[in-house]
Every structure is written in C-alpha cells, then in structure tokens.
Amino acid sequence: GAVVSQHPSRVICKSGTSVKIECRSLDFQATTMFWYRQFPKQSLMLMATSNEGSKATYEQGVEKDKFLINHASLTLSTLTVTSAHPEDSSFYICSARVPSGGGGTDTQYFGPGTRLTVL
Amino acid sequence: GQNIDQPTEMTATEGAIVQINCTYQTSGFNGLFWYQQHAGEAPTFLSYNVLDGLEEKGRFSSFLSRSKGYSYLLLKELQMKDSASYLCAVRGPGGYQKVTFGTGTKLQVIP
Q: What is the pLDDT of residues A23-57, one digit of tens each?
C-alpha cells in the first residue's frame, strides 16, 4: 500500500518558536495532501488542504499566517507552526490522496503523525 | 456542511461480532471511509464505500446506504487487538474532495 511519512515524530519546543513538520509520500506522487490536528480524545479536525504548486486551502477558523503550508513538490508538503504557544500542543497528522488509477480505491493514507508539545 | 454521528463507546466480547453504525448528513457525497486508530497513533485505512451495498474484507465488512445516509462497520471474530477507535469519514464533493471525520467510536474488546 501507499506509504506516507512524517518528520519529526515528536517535537518539544519553547513558546514563541517555530516548528516545521514534513509530510512525504514515499512511493507515489500526491498532488493533494491534507493536514489534520487531533486533540486528546477528539477526532481529527481538518486544518487545510495542500495542493502542489498552489496556495493551500484553509478551513474556517484556522489562521493561515500561523500555520504555513508549502507543497513544493509532488512528494512533499510542510506545515510550519509559527510562534507556537502551549495551546498549539497537539497531534498533527498529514494524509495524502492516492489516485484511483487502474480501478483501485481513491483513498487517503495517513502519515504516522507528529506530536507537538509547546512549553 | 457535513454532520457525522457515531456512538461514542462500545464494548464487545472477544470472539463475538460487533456492528458500529455511522449516520451522516452532507451537502454532497463522494464516498465513505472507515479508519482504525489506536491510541497515540495515526489512523489506518480499513474500507471505502462509494456505492450501496456490503464490502467484505476478511474479518471486516462495511455497508453503505446512500439514500439513508447510513453506514456500518462489522467486525467479526473479535480479537483483543481490535480495541481501538473506529472513525467514520465522509468525502465531500468538489475538486479537492475534502474528507470530514466523525468523532469516532471507541471499541473495547473484553475477554
């Protein structure tokens, strides 16, 4: 199956610093990637849709200047949390859309997630 | 918009069968997913339904009725390792085909 990786898996940073999270599709090209955030005991909340070569589409209530998304290539999307604060501490998960060529399932595969802790 | 409802928690016995229901109301529909998520881990893909009917994949089956806005995930021969949250997610219309997740059903399998 399709493999999506994320780096780093865990990060602890001081309040006010910026953190970059990478999402890569390892064995396929992903024109569309999605960034989710999940707080403890809650479901995944879509933050933004990342499109290769164009601006990301942000969900209502998500600050685009705080959560910078760059989809520079067909295999890499990055999420930068700028000026992080303790309330940004969460589990950040990316997913990549796998096209359904050849009769396969058009679905999304998730990266392993990045746990961000802001002190 | 989209609204997805699932039971919050369920408990079932090892070796038994459990059915997890999901109802949805959407402004557009382009498929329904079921994912399994263990605590502290990312979701893993289980199934995808876009047409009405039952899709079977080993111990897991998923059913969809588009006219009723209803799906269920059926788990047979439950194992302890099946204890996890099960997320129902609906893909919307449009070019980006955004996927919206329900709050998930936490399943506990007991001996």
A: 999 988 888 899 999 988 788 999 999 888 888 99
Q: How far is the C-alpha of B64 from the C-alpha of B32, rounded, in Å?
A: 8
> If DSSP codes are grouped into helix, strand and coil, which group holds residue A27?
coil
Say yes or no to pLDDT of B86 above 80: yes
B53, B69 Cβ separation under 8 angstroms: no
Inter-residue contact A28 to A74 (CB < 8 Å): no
d(CA A96, CA B61): 24
Residues of A (100-119) whose Cβ lies below 8 Å from B: 105-113, 115
Q: Which residues contact A80 (CB under 8 A, 6 or more apart)?
A: A18, A19, A20, A21, A67, A68, A69, A70
Interchain CB contact of B33 with A (< 8 Å)? yes
Which residues does residue A109 pair with via DSSP β-bridges, in sequence order? A96
Distance between CA atoms of B31 and B50, rounded to whole angstroms? 4
The answer to whether the CB atoms of B96 and A44 lie below 8 A apart is no
**Cα dihedral angle (A82, A49, A95, B80), rounded to 10 degrees?**
90
Q: What is the pLDDT of residues B29-59, one digit of tens each?
A: 888 999 999 988 888 989 999 999 999 989 9
Q: B7 and chain A: CB distance < 8 Å anywhere?
A: no
- Is B45 near chain A, with CB under 8 Å? yes
**Å between A16 CA and nearest CA of chain B:** 25
Which residues in A lie closer than 8 A to residue B40 (C-beta atoms)?
91, 115
